[in-house]
Amino acid sequence: MRGCRPLTDTEIEAVIAYVSKPDLKREKALFLLGIRTGLRLSSLMSLRIEDVSINGKVRDRIRVRRMTTKGRRSGFDMALHPQAAESLQEYLDIRHQVVGYVFEGRFPKTRMSRSQGWRVIKEIFEESGLDGGYGELGAHVLRKTFCRLIYSALRHDLVKTAYAMRHASVSTTIHYLSFREEELDAVIRAL
Fold first, then answer.
1. CATH superfamily, with its number, for domain 9-190
2. Least crowded by CB within 10 Å, which of 15, 167, 174, 181?
3. pTM of the entire structure?
């Protein structure tokens, strides 16, 4: 997490434009699930088709199993953003499967590894023209972007944001809410 930063709205648009190519349905589903659910990469890689769909149709809520969460404390259901649901449906439609992992590994009945998921996300960022700028671009950027978006949508309510992030402590959520040094500099100069 250290060094990673959330994507700006302009960067999100650039990535969506790139992954909207017809042959990148998996990448689009992975990216949009990441920024619209805030799930950790290991939880995303562990999603099973039956956790997100019924009879081939993506549900409006997804199930995150206890064994796939950090600390394995508890599983949970969560709402699925319509944009993420649509891209996931498009991806599952080309897969023609109703069981198994959403993001398949190289071998049958296996899931994509965390390291492979990380490489896919890094490639998405590179191909989208993102340069890293003031912070590292990696898989955790998806979770940090979700945190920024939900914090803003909740009108800066830290308690609700911490709950949405499934953090045990608000102080952990505060670490996710990155800010740019340039923003602070501008405020200080304007005082």
1. Intergrase catalytic core (1.10.443.10)
2. 181
3. 0.88
